[in-house]
Predict the 3D structure of the following.
Amino acid sequence: MKSLFKNLAIGLFAVGVFSQSAFANSQYETEFEDRLRINIASYCQANRSGRSCIYQGSFTVEITCSGSSIRTDANMIACDGYEDMTIKTSAPMLGIDNGAILTHRRGTTYAATSASQGYLGLPENTHEITIDGNSEDNPELISVDINTGIPTYIVDNLSAASNSLRFAYSGVLRNLNDFESQIARSHRGHLVRFKSVLTDGIDILSELDDDDQPVYGIVHWKVQENSRMIVAFGSILDELLTDYDDIERLQYSIRAMRTLVAQLKESYGWGRSLSGQVSRASSTLLEVVRLELQELGGIKMSIGADVSVYSQLLTISAQLKAKVDSSRSGDMRAQREIFDFLDAWNSSAWQAELDTLVNAGPDVRNLVTPKVVMLLQAMESLEDLTDAGFELPME
């Protein structure tokens, strides 16, 4: 099966999770034609914690003092002890309003030179600045202006999101590399497939253009398809690896995998559909199978081919999925419909069609091959879970 995937492959992502508080802090925000002003001082009056204050609303603003705690005075916040204040934002700043006139010192560092309140305009695409505390006054801040007018920051943000996603995949993969030998042999196939789709995702997101920018943004279909498979196989592992939750040396790896899956599900809005709250391992795989069958059937229909065998598999798999979802155990082997699905999959008509998909001609290969790979990976996992006897290409 691995050689088949390799041969098929030869033939062939800052979006983050929206916080539930995204609009809860709108009372601190004022909209202008080209900017959103966030009264960070007012917010931090009640929400600072030690050296930092993190605002999460339409955008994220993080204020950090280098050594001392944040102090609030009247309508502003300050860093005590003439320490540095760092301001980071999730979208470019247009400027800040502070309690002293600031002058540029070097790079993204500014220094307070007067006790008079001043407004500082910032260069385009500025996400972070530091107010130097080694000056005539404590670093102070009243408000931050975020660029919401001319959206010059989109490319930067999407590129950053692609890099963030790649780093997340790499981190989870690194934590799983020593994991395989620690789990039961019956679970290793699922882990291998999860690691395989993580590696595919890293490869997709690592591809750069001539300007060293990611070729594929996080909204590209290749990235989304790969993320969907990561969620699917990760959800299967989430269920299977509950037996290892009490093994201390494995807990970090399991938690990293589960967090990645949860973040992807929420970010892409998959909710209760793909690998959703009611889905179990077998149901998750059936949903992947059904999605790939639908898309492959659509491609074949577009070229005028007979799709009756797809319709039969989709109907039977829908019945099986409904039964699995409604059962208390979610065990697909306990459902009578598994045998109907097995017969339809192993039928001579479908096996002949599957052979044409694996050996698709150049006119449709680029469309068909990625979906066939996903379909067969999901079916291989179904076979591992059920031992039902699904016939799968071996070469």
User: Anything to note?
Assistant: Residues 60 and 90 are 5 Å apart (CA to CA).
